[in-house]
Design brief:
heterodimer; A: about 110 residues; alpha/beta; 5 helices; 3 strands; B: about 180 residues; mainly alpha; two-stranded antiparallel sheet; about 75% helix; rod-shaped
């Protein structure tokens, strides 16, 4: 069994940039309001979190980098990657890009 | 009819030359022809016509496929002008730029899929286009916007210019490779 969140449905169809200071619907806001809580729940329930990236008007790399890097900083890269499943049928390249963000070292 | 024009024309010229040489006293030719020779002539002519028409068809399909893919790659090249013009101005409208990159990437993916399923062009590599596109996208959309625009410094403009050039070269290489395929 898996839990699923959709960026377009659970957050916004127009994702913003990196930080709160960059404007509305930032990667930081997505992490704080949606991603972190969803991931914690899936860890407690011992299931995977499915994150559906489709359906938005597009992503800034800063948005995805901020959200998923924060997640890997909070937990650790392997825990995040092994408990995450990304859906990106529109742009499959995002999956490898996000893996790269997760496995980058802390700033 | 158009496809058969060249082989038919060649046949007619051959016959006329044959008549000319047979009437020209310098060439001594028999007035009779063996049945086997006549059959050989007809069969050889038929095979020649068949091969010419089949090859012509294949060449025609080959060219159409290449031209279609090259047109798609040219359209992608034109799309990059939007980024170039924003770069020249020193600013990118944030939401419009994000949407632009998604739309352009969808077009790139569509072309890559077309190449994969094509008969004559399926060996064309699009990996350099993919890599250079993502690098350009990262460079532009990794920057923080001010209000609704990404304002770039001179140094950032130069980096973006290099990324655009790399992508342009990758696209031109794909076009040339497609033409050669």
């Amino acid at each position: 069994m898996e839990h699923k969140i959709s960026v377009a449905e659970d957050f916004t169809s127009k994702p913003g940039a990196r930080y709160y200071s960059d404007g509305p619907k930032s990667g930081q806001a997505f992490y704080d309001e949606v991603l972190k809580a969803a991931f914690e729940k899936t860890l407690n329930d011992k299931v995977k979190l499915i994150v559906d990236l489709d359906g938005t008007e597009g992503y800034a790399t800063s948005f995805l980098d901020e959200a998923f890097r924060r997640l890997s900083d909070e937990y650790d890269p392997d825990t995040v990657w092994n408990n995450l499943r990304l859906i990106s049928e529109d742009e499959p390249d995002w999956i490898d890009e996000i893996k790269g963000y997760i496995y980058k070292t802390k700033k | 009819m158009k496809k058969a024009l060249i082989p038919i024309t060649s046949l007619v010229i051959g016959i006329l030359l044959g008549v000319f040489f047979s009437n020209y006293s310098y060439f001594k030719l028999d007035n009779t022809i063996e049945l086997t020779d006549a059959a050989g002539l007809i069969i050889t002519t038929g095979i020649g016509l068949y091969i010419a028409m089949t090859l012509q068809d294949r060449q025609s399909i080959n060219r159409k496929e290449k031209d279609f893919i090259i047109d798609e790659l040219h359209d992608l090249l034109k799309d990059i002008n939007y980024i170039s013009s924003c770069n020249e101005k020193g600013k990118f409208p944030f939401q419009e730029t994000i949407s632009f990159f998604k739309t352009t990437n969808l077009r790139r993916l569509s072309i890559a899929n077309l190449i994969k399923i094509s008969t004559f062009c399926n060996k064309i590599k699009m990996s350099e286009v993919r890599i250079s596109f993502m690098e350009l996208r990262t460079q532009v959309t990794g920057l923080s916007p001010t209000d609704t625009e990404i304002i770039i410094t001179v140094a950032q403009k130069q980096i973006i210019t290099k990324r655009i050039q790399r992508l342009t070269i990758a696209l031109y290489t794909a076009i040339l490779d497609t033409n050669k395929a």
